Amino acid sequence: MKAYIDFVDAWLDAEVVSTRTKYTERDMVKLAIGISKPKKMFKKGVETTYGRSFKMSDAFWESAEETLARHHRRPLYALVRHAADIVVAYVGYQDSQMDGHLGQRYVIGRVDGELKFVAWESRCSTCVAQGADSPSCSECQGRGWTPYRGSDRVVLGDVIEVERFERSPPATTPSALQILGSLG
Ligand SMILES: [Zn+2]
Known about the structure:
This protein is of the alpha+beta class.
């Protein structure tokens, strides 16, 4: 798992740089470089949310410092290996308004021999509304998660290994604890 832990840690560090850049950088070239670091860790074609327009409103800049202060390094709660080259990272959020929640997971695979995020997924909103992962769920067919745009729908298969991490802030919501408890 070491290579996967290192990969995820490098991503979380890159996100910190990207977020700081997003809320502070007014130079177009520096913005493009700083913001794109974590994006390079995703397979080509998978959409991410790291971008920012060059020109932002006065309102954006007025609240930028405050918004940035609300963000922290994204916590990693668990890595789950499903196959030789498929590991899923269960993580929290950077925005402290989402502390305690777990609603996204990131699928790591190999692309041309290199580790990349080949998919990231959100909790299926239909399942959440119904309170259970249902095989008859029309949106996710029982997966419980729906892939983000451009993501592969990776067949995960059986769990081989689970590694848990005590990271701050901890996962605390009933849904987050249920997800982590069900990993095996
Ligand atoms: Zn569903």
